[in-house]
Design a protein that fits this description.
heterodimer, A: about 325 residues, mainly alpha, MetI-like fold, 14 helices
Chain lengths: ~325, ~300
């Protein structure tokens, strides 16, 4: 087991280094000069060349690319992600302003989805090919099919037409005013949560289906146990492993959901921060965010793999 | 003896009924009604895309400025948009973009990923290690941000959207196909053909590839709906296809939400079209997976 853990830990290094290099290269390849965007030029769009050079020097993007990459990587090792080219403030500081909102959205959406997905997924599996199964599948496949930004647009449309609702200008944290926070966040949470629930329901269904075919379940039936006991005590426990994995690995997918949902609801969260940073060519911000998301993804996957290896010795001896 | 032979033949016929392609389809629709419904939606969408020029009542690009924001009526079933263009015609032509991007992006991503997966599994050793790390990097890179960045590099055009969407599919397909290819490789018959002196090419093409086709097809259908959604999301964020292309995502972006109160139909119908299309592909893919995966088959 120790060799397995060490190997898995060592494999993280090339992955993160690869992600760091890839995002660095991608950001430099994207056409559009950040200095031109910042300066904007005069009314005729003319920009002084010396002004550009001065700004490039100030931002540190006049150095050779390799030096820039080295400096950035050295900073990352010390958990210093540089400063935003636009606001001039440290990226970490900018991130911390937006993190509570996205974290609340992500966590609440996950909780909502798990509460919906596990019972319904289980029900669909136990009653496979009956109307209950069809209904659950149609609703969950619908959740995957309906674009979350469209759900967002419809919700806003509904709120605007019937309640004269306007999008909130500032985020109210739950510890300041829970009711205001609830009003602000409930629709984005439902929008993200529905999609997330759809994915998890499907996984729960197929996982429970697979377990229900196992020999030990047949033994449990033969022993004369009640269905309730078999499904909840025997099947669900073993079926949960892939579901928990999915909830973990869907983390990356959740980020995508945040990007779109935050844009629709004009919420100032991390997702919108990334889109804006790509549009503004704010290299340090994009690099930092992609690196941190990748780090989160890699850690979650590592934990999942280790749990699996712990449960199933065949994996670690392969 | 003759009677035994007959019973054997009869028994064989009962045990392993050979179905024609048509019978297979009927059986699929019978046992998987949701899959049949999905196939019907896909066929409908294909029909609309192919015959858009005949079916669409108006030119999707030409607007009538006297008819901006017209309510749905007998002339304009889905109403008109801010330029007075017929929403129904634009939704119909939009099926072309959605299907084109969906098919090409998932086909390209799954095929390339599948090939890498087979190579990785068959070669093993350093090649496998290297390819696996490469796939790890692509997997760890947030999907939508990767597509966003690629789309910003290449600019808004349909073929660039295809590239932007297919790249994140590659590592996912590679993973699935590699896992299957690894287990196929361990089979005794592969060892046997190798012992018989079969070339590597023959082993891979004749003995490994045919056995990974099922997961490849499952992956392909699963990615199709996702690719259509990704195109819509990219266009919605302004990085997909550019105006005046009638793309469903694009029809929902920009001004559509701001006219929501005045003309909700502009945002309503393209959204229904996306959802219905993706719904069809997912229903079909789901049932296909159930039918092809023996573990999920009803016993």
């Amino acid at each position: 087991m120790r060799t397995y853990v060490v190997t898995r830990l060592l494999l993280i290094v090339p992955t993160l280094l690869g992600v760091a290099s890839l995002v660095f290269v991608i950001m430099r390849v994207i056409p559009g000069d950040v200095t031109l965007l910042i300066l904007g030029g005069d009314q005729a769009g003319r920009i002084d060349a010396s002004q550009i050079a001065a700004l490039k020097h100030r931002l540190g993007i006049d150095q050779p690319l390799l030096t820039q990459f080295g400096t950035w990587l050295w900073g990352v090792l010390r958990f210093d992600f540089g400063t935003s080219l636009w606001s001039g403030r440290p990226v970490v500081e900018e991130l911390l302003i937006r993190l509570p909102l996205s974290l609340e959205l992500a966590l609440a959406a996950t909780i909502v989805s798990v509460l919906i997905a596990i019972p319904f997924g289980m029900l669909a599996a136990v009653r496979q090919d009956t109307w209950v199964d069809y209904l659950v599948r149609v609703i969950s496949i619908g959740g995957l099919a309906i674009p979350s930004f469209w759900v967002g647009i419809l919700v806003i449309l509904f709120l605007v037409i019937f309640f004269g609702w306007g999008p909130p200008l500032e985020f109210t944290p739950p510890w300041v005013d829970p009711w205001a926070n609830f009003q602000q966040m409930v629709w984005p949470i439902v929008t993200v949560g529905y999609r997330y629930a759809a994915v998890t329901t499907r996984m729960t269904r197929s996982s429970v289906l697979e377990v229900l075919r196992e020999d030990y379940i047949r033994t449990a039936w033969a022993k004369g146990l009640r269905e309730r006991a078999i499904v909840i005590r025997h099947a669900l426990k073993n079926a949960m492993l892939p579901v928990i994995t999915l909830i973990g690995t869907e983390f990356a997918f959740l980020i995508g959901g945040l990007v779109v949902t935050e844009t629709v609801f004009t919420l100032n969260g991390v997702g919108r921060f990334v889109v804006d940073a790509v549009a503004h060519r704010d290299y340090p911000v994009v690099q930092a965010l992609v690196f941190l998301i990748a780090l989160g993804f890699v850690i979650v996957n590592l934990l999942v793999d280790l749990t699996y290896a712990w449960f199933d010795p065949r994996i670690r001896y392969r | 003896m003759a009677t035994t032979a007959l019973t054997h033949a009869q028994a064989a016929a009962v045990l392993a009924p050979r179905l024609t392609a048509g019978e297979e389809v009927v059986k699929f629709i019978r046992t998987k009604p949701l899959g049949g419904a999905g196939a019907l939606i896909i066929l409908g969408m294909l029909g609309v895309a192919v015959f858009a020029a005949v079916l669409a009542p108006y030119d999707p690009y030409v607007g009538d400025y006297g008819l901006q924001f017209a309510r749905p009526s007998a002339e304009h079933w889905f109403g008109t948009d801010e330029f007075g263009r017929d929403v129904l015609s634009r939704v119909m032509y939009g099926a072309r973009i959605a299907l084109f991007v969906g098919f090409t992006a998932s086909l390209a991503g799954c095929t390339l990923g599948g090939l890498l997966g087979v190579v990785s599994a068959y070669c093993g050793g350093k090649v496998d290690l290297l390819l696996e790390r490469l796939m790890d990097i692509l997997l760890a890179f947030p999907q939508l941000i990767l597509a966003l960045a690629i789309a910003s590099i290449l600019g808004p055009a349909v073929q660039n959207v295809v590239i932007a969407i297919s790249i994140p599919i590659i590592p996912r397909a590679a993973r699935v196909v590699r896992a299957t290819a690894l287990s196929v490789k361990e089979n005794v018959y592969v060892e046997a053909v190798q012992a018989l002196g079969a070339t590597r090419r023959r082993v891979v093409l004749h003995h490994i590839v045919p056995n990974v086709v099922a997961p490849y097809i499952i992956m392909l259908t699963a990615q199709l709906g996702g690719a259509i959604l990704a195109e819509a999301a990219l266009s919605y964020l302004g990085l997909g296809t550019a105006e005046p292309t009638p793309s469903w995502g694009l029809m929902l972006s920009g001004s559509a939400p701001s006219y929501a109160e005045k003309a909700p139909w502009i945002a309503l119908f393209p959204g229904i079209a996306i959802s219905l299309g993706v719904f069809g592909f997912n229903l079909f893919g789901d049932s296909l997976r159930d039918a092809l995966d023996p573990k999920l088959r009803r016993t």
